[in-house]
Q: What sequence folds into this?
């Protein structure tokens, strides 16, 4: 009788809301999907007679999702929109000024940022 009472006390009525149940259910479903993906990756690796490194890589990549066609180009395009050289980066730090050459104020800010780190 005591164990039954103890078991019933674990559930608090104020915690049994739809939002809490939805969050817990979503987390449980994700955990189960992850477990199934890892298990199937292990079995595929064994069937392919992989060495340990290949087995390990297949298990690590078990939950990776493929990207859709055209998404890789959009990632690359986004990276190309941002400046990759030091002069352009200094211009952004200086407040959007795009000046060619040496700017002492920008250099001071960069050095100050490095000292703070």
A:
């Amino acid at each position: 009788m005591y164990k039954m009472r103890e078991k019933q006390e674990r559930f608090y009525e104020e915690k049994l809301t739809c939002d809490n149940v939805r969050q817990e259910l979503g987390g449980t479903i994700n955990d189960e999907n992850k477990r199934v993906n890892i298990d199937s990756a292990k079995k595929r690796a064994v069937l392919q007679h992989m060495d340990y490194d290949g087995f390990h890589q297949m298990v690590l990549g078990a939950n990776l999702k493929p990207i859709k066609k055209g998404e890789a180009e959009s990632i690359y395009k986004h990276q190309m929109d941002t400046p990759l050289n030091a002069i352009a980066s200094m211009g952004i730090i200086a407040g959007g000024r795009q000046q060619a050459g040496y700017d002492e104020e920008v250099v001071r800010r960069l050095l100050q940022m490095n000292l703070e780190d």
